[in-house]
Amino acid sequence: xxxxxxxxxxxxxxxxxxxxxxxxxxxxxxxxxxxxxxxxxxxxxxxxxxxxxxxxxxxxxxxxxxxxxxxxxxxxxxxxxxxxxxxxxxxxxxxxxxxxxxxxxxxxxxxxxxxxxxxxxxxx
Length: 124
Hints:
- By secondary structure, the protein is of the alpha+beta class.
- The protein has one domain: Jelly Rolls (Sandwich).
- The chain has three helices and nine strands, in the order ααβββββββββα.
- The chain is globular, with a radius of gyration of 16 Å.
């Protein structure tokens, strides 16, 4: 019985860790365009009214390709209102959130997610 519980717990942990990846939770919006040992680069697009599933990003740089407004809903329920202009650049620490396009224009951004071995990348 203990073995069955362990296997079930491992499966649930694996699923929830995997389910937090935005490419998996919202593959209709996030497309991976590059990945190596140092970074993963994502192209993100949505339309007014679109909302993501809760997901997680490691520390990242965001580069905006369009003007847009959105709400970032954190796990504790706090809502951050954001407004961007094309060409804006933003740094964010690791974050779990739901994103909602609450403006009147589509969102288009490039996210550069940092990987944990970034120190090794700097030595290259």
